[in-house]
Specification:
It is a single chain. The strands form two sheets. The chain has a five-stranded antiparallel β-sheet with strand order 8-1-2-9-10. Strands 3-4-5-6-7 form a five-stranded antiparallel β-sheet. It has a single domain, classed as Glutamine Phosphoribosylpyrophosphate, subunit 1, domain 1. It is α+β, with helices and mostly antiparallel strands. Helix 4 packs across helix 5 and helix 5 packs across helix 6. It is globular.
């Protein structure tokens, strides 16, 4: 049986400069169901496709609140995500008790990046097999969206998707990238659901059972800035959004049909 002598631990480089343990962890992220995140000037939205292992099991949670101003979406091993989410909760609570305010998102993401990278620097440990999209708001520019990878690398994003078949969702996000900054909450959710639909296999549809939506943002009223807390919406709470995204898609298809017919007439003429 073939044996790779360079994947026994996360501190050994192959002759090509690769760390196979990190690549295996990244592959675990690609096997998870897709999650999508989008940020605008006022809100950040996370949309997730939940998966059940079999007919008799419930759908696994994909969105987790961390603090009032921040939450995460996961793709990969849920057990590893639980470890990281508990660590993030502890850091947010400690920061609030020490400084009396919300923890800046950049600081929080840097901490989990350092924690994850430590597992690639010590024998006997392994990288976390989970990817995260971290969405929240703070005093440094309002809403933010960050991507976390098992290697410990973190990046701020305008919009992103991770998980199985996420490339289709990213293609949709790239096409509509310019419009996200000025979108309100409802528009961001609609875009997120459309991106999620792009990643579905042909015989699957978004339903209230397999779809979760989370929203966090800021509102300015009478010159005062108020944080809209991170909230996860499941079940019947998302039914109206799913129906709205479906209606938009049907409208787009109906609108494109006359244009195609007109084009055909021009060619024939």
């Amino acid at each position: 049986m073939f044996r790779n002598n360079y994947d026994n631990d996360p501190v050994t480089f192959s002759p090509q400069g690769r760390i196979f343990q990190v690549e295996y962890a990244a592959e675990a992220v690609k096997q998870g169901s897709v999650v999508v995140g989008i940020a605008s000037k006022t809100h950040a939205v996370l949309v997730a496709l939940k998966r059940n292992a079999e007919e008799l099991s419930s759908y696994q949670k994909k969105l987790f609140p961390i603090d009032e101003h921040v939450g995460i979406a996961i793709a990969g091993l849920t057990s590893d995500a639980r470890v990281l989410s508990n660590f993030m909760k502890q850091q947010c609570l400690s920061h609030r008790l020490t400084f009396g305010r919300d923890m800046p998102l950049r600081n929080l993401v840097d901490l989990i990046g350092e924690k994850a990278q430590m597992n690639t620097q010590h024998m006997g440990k392994r990288p976390y097999g989970v990817g995260l999209l971290v969405a929240g708001v703070d005093d440094r520019g309002g809403p933010h969206l960050f991507e976390f990878q098992p290697s410990g690398m973190t990046e701020e994003m305008v919009a992103f998707a991770i998980g199985a078949r996420s490339q289709m969702a990213r293609t949709y996000l790239e096409k509509n990238l310019e419009s996200f900054a000025d979108c309100g909450k409802e528009e961001l959710i609609r875009h997120g659901l459309k991106a999620l639909k792009e990643s579905l296999v042909q015989d699957r549809e978004l339903t209230v059972e397999n779809t979760s939506v989370a929203v966090v943002g800021v509102e300015v009223k009478d010159g005062k800035r108020k944080v809209e807390p991170f909230k996860v919406h499941d079940g019947q709470e998302v039914s109206a959004w799913i129906e709205g995204a479906a209606d938009d898609k049907e409208g787009d298809e109906e609108g494109s049909a006359p244009a195609a017919a007109a084009g055909a007439m021009d060619v024939d003429a």
